[in-house]
Task: structure prediction
Amino acid sequence: MGNEFADRKAAEARNPAFLDTSIRGSLAAEKTALIQREQLWKRSPRVAFPTQSAIHQLCSGHVPLNAFQFKSKKVPYLICTTCGATKSVDHYLVSCSRFNKARTVARRILQDERITEISTRSLLHNPRAFKATKSFIQISARLPQFRQREDAKGSLQ
Result:
């Protein structure tokens, strides 16, 4: 009698209606996927910290541009003195005439990568646009980590 009861319960448990479908795949498959992600991460090229920091700041919007500093009450205005628009990440990357030289270099790199659109989204979220974004940030020297500093003798470092 006990075995019959156990057999009935086992048959019920095999019913697909009772299976937990939230658990998909095996533990071995999950482990393999994790190992592959770790290997991809280890093989990916490394970037200097100032560049990593700048791109993260631009993506998050927590960047020392007037729009963010105005919210933090660090500057009294959020308008660009060059063109009169709100100084935002989009303005800095795409439209401010002050950075046209840097944007021209970035456009050439984007064309080499066959990226036709220069937008905040393409510059910050397309992996193929990374070189263009990096060169734009470095050439524009707008962010503190890329500004040249003068030493005590007045020469640029």
Residues 123 and 130 are 7 Å apart (CA to CA). The two ends are 88 Å apart (CA to CA). The first helix runs from residue 2 to 13. DSSP finds eight helices and no strands in the chain.
